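Handout, tutorial session.
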Amino acid sequence: MSEYLVAGIFALSLIHLWRVRERFDRDVFRMLALSVLFLIVAELSGIFYTDAFVYNSLAALSEAISFYLLYRVIFVTGLIRPYALMFRNLKKSEEEVRTARDGLELQVAERTVELRVANKRLKDELSERLLAAEALR
């Protein structure tokens, strides 16, 4: 029963991790999720217990893979690419600003065309009114 309980706790942590996935780098999220999945497999391997060797091998292999993935997340990613992780949000914000700027530039261009058309129409109307006023005089 404890194996089910621990696997359930891992599953809940995986669900929570999924809900906050946008806070993580894509590779970091994948490695964390896979790590939790392998821990669930290691925990549930006890329910398929038919042979001690198979059980211990499956559990040990799953745990080793899980810990390797955690090692990759914490040490390799955190020590080799720390600035990439720290400035991920800054880069994301910069891309959002760039996208917004491009959208605004497009709106300005469209509005400029509309204003030129309206300006030409007003000039034509002014010319017509001046001609009409001249004709009336």
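The second record follows below. Compare its token runs with those of the first.
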Amino acid sequence: MSKEIQKNLKLLKKEASSIGSRSALVITVTTQDLGNNFEIFPFRYFKNYVCLPIGIKNTAMGIHISKLFDGKVDLIFVDVENKLRACQDLFNKIFAVVKKSKIFPIKGNDFTADSAFSVIFTILKNLSQKKILIVGAGNIGSKVALKLIECGAQVFIINSTKLSTNKQADAINIMKPAECRSRVKPITKEKIPRNLDCIVGFTRGIPVITKDIVANLKTEGLLLDGGTGTISQSGINEVRKKKAMILRLDIRVGFAHYASFIMNTEEFVTKVVGKKKIDGFNMVAGGVIGEKGDIIVDNIKKPNKIIGISNGRGSVLKGITHSKNVDIVKRLIN
């Protein structure tokens, strides 16, 4: 077990060196069946990093892997979603043992949902009134459904039971903006509407999208396997006969966006946000709610621009653009 992980660590360092990048470990909690309590996934790339994702099913394995990689990679990303009881509070436990590498949290279900939404939006273009069926509207599927109806799509969902389908639809429709006219519609397999623009599966690898379901897809439609293995062989054969597009969801773009986002947020909080006293008055930046009269700047450590004068309630004083304190800050910037 350790030999295989060590081998992949060497491959990661070699790949990073060959392309002039830094290295990162990504520990994800997976609900899929794993032969050795872990699974090595293909490299992912973002910014100036090459990442090795490893899927696990228990905390002990996550801690073991983290100790092997600590100090040998620049970053360690750890899944913070409590998907399995055996991985509860995984981030906190790994955070306690990682001493050298920088550690960041990730939420795999979130960037998977973002990836699915982005793929659907990019391929279908205008989502308004597009008919989309989601088979398996659990944690990820419901997030995608909410995003789609907020864009005006007609979304239909099917879960394993009628009760579950109705409950999930009600929950999504409660969460959506009141002004959003689109609503998620719970249906059964017998009442799937014709001429669907898109069918998406999120059933944890269970091949429930059959030929009969795919028969309702438009010829120019999209069939997206969001859960890896959600489409049966008969469904695959049917979509090929239709010459429609069939894709397995690739989460690389979603991961790259999420990883960059969480790192940029840390940089923003540590280098932009803050409050500083100068010549008897305060400067604030990055969303800090200052007292009335405080000068709001764009960056607390390296101010380049004056945003305004604080009204003490999180906004700027209207109609007031000058004070002696503004002059002091201008001189500081210059």
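Points raised in discussion: The first strand starts at residue 22 and ends at 29.
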